[in-house]
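Instructor's aside before we start: the two examples that follow are unrelated to each other. I chose them only because their records fit on one page, so don't look for a connection. First example below.
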Amino acid sequence: MYGNDDDYTYHFKYQISEEKVKVTLPDLELDVTPSCFPDYVSEIYIFGYHNIDEVLDRLQEAGFDPVPETIAEGPWVYKPEEESYEEYRKRCGL
C-alpha cells in the first residue's frame, strides 16, 4: 500500500518503549522521540530506505498501533528534501 521510502516516521498516541521497538526492528536504524504531531505522543524515525508496509506489519504484530506520517500529515511533517533531520527537530521544539 505505501511501498518503499527513505527516512520515514511512524506516530503513536501513547508512549512507546525504545527497547521494545529495537527488539521488533533490530535490522533498522531508528530513533524514538516525542512526536511533533498534535494528538500524538511518540514517534519512530527510521533512517534510510525501507518498506513501509513491512515495518507497519512488524510493529502491529508486536502490539503497537503505528500511524504512518502520510496519514497524520500536516505542516510539521519532516521533508528530507527541504530540511535536515536536525532542523526538523529544532523546528518542532524537540
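Example two begins here.
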Amino acid sequence: MTLAPGTEHLLQLLILTSIVLLIPVFVGVTVVLFKLAFLIHSTSDFVNFASNELTPVVKELRLTVDHLETMGHRASSGMQDMGQTLQSVRPLVKTGVARTKTFASALISGLKRSFDRNR
C-alpha cells in the first residue's frame, strides 16, 4: 500500500514531532527518578543518624524508668512501714494521753487541796 505524497510527509512530520516531544518527557522522568533516588538516600541517612543519636537517649530513659520504679517501691514500702509503726504507736499514745489526764487531774486536785488547807 502506498501513501499519497502529502500524507507521507505529514506522517514523517508527526513522527518527528513525537520524537521531539518525547525527549523533554524522557528528561523530566529521568530528573524525577534522580530526585526520588536522592530523597530515598537522604531519608536512609536521616534514619541511620536518628537511630544512632536516639539509642543512648533510649538507654538513659530506660535507666531512669528503672530508677523511678525502684524509688516508687521504696516509697511504697516506707509508707507501709510508717503505717505499721503508727498502728503500733497508737495504743501507746492513747495510754500516755490517759495517764497524762490522770496526772493532770491528780495534780490539780492535789493543788486545790493544798491551797484549801492553808486557809
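Residues 5-118 form the longest helix (114 residues).
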